Amino acid sequence: MGGLHQEGKEDRRSLHGFRHLGQRQDWEIKNLKIEPLKSDAKTAGVLASFDNFDRHEDINFSLIKDKKGWMVDDISTGCDMLSDVLKGKISTC
Q1: How far from chain centre, in Å, is Cα 44?
Q2: Quick check: 66 and 41 in contact, CB under 8 A?
Q3: Other CB atoms within 10 A of residue 60 CB
Q4: pLDDT-derived band at 23, boundaries 50, 70, 90
Q5: Tell me: the pLDDT tens digits for 42-69?
Q6: 30: β partners
Q7: CA 43, 69, 77: angle at the middle one, nearest 5?
Q8: Rg (alpha carbons) of the chain, rounded to whole number
Q9: Between 47 and 10, whose confidence is greater?
Q10: What's the mean per-residue pLDDT of the chain?
Q11: How far apart are CA 61 and CA 14, in angstroms?
Q12: Do 75 and 58 form a contact (C-beta atoms < 8 A)?
């Protein structure tokens, strides 16, 4: 996790810019819907949609299956992907 937060650099990057479950710090979740998307034996997708205060959010979860079971491979908010933010790409939100 060494690249997640770079102290002392002009361009300070951290995961604080990626609000993977909504583009806010405060929550008032309403109208939650969980929808399974495409899936096969080793991959699956899930769409979570909800209203948070006055804003509608769609979050896509990409899942993979290994010997231990299902796990989250990536999360997409529509303007960012968690994997990109972890690689140091600046948020587009």
Answers
A1: 15
A2: no
A3: 16
A4: low
A5: 999 999 999 988 889 899 999 999 999 9
A6: 51
A7: 50
A8: 15
A9: 47
A10: 79
A11: 21
A12: no
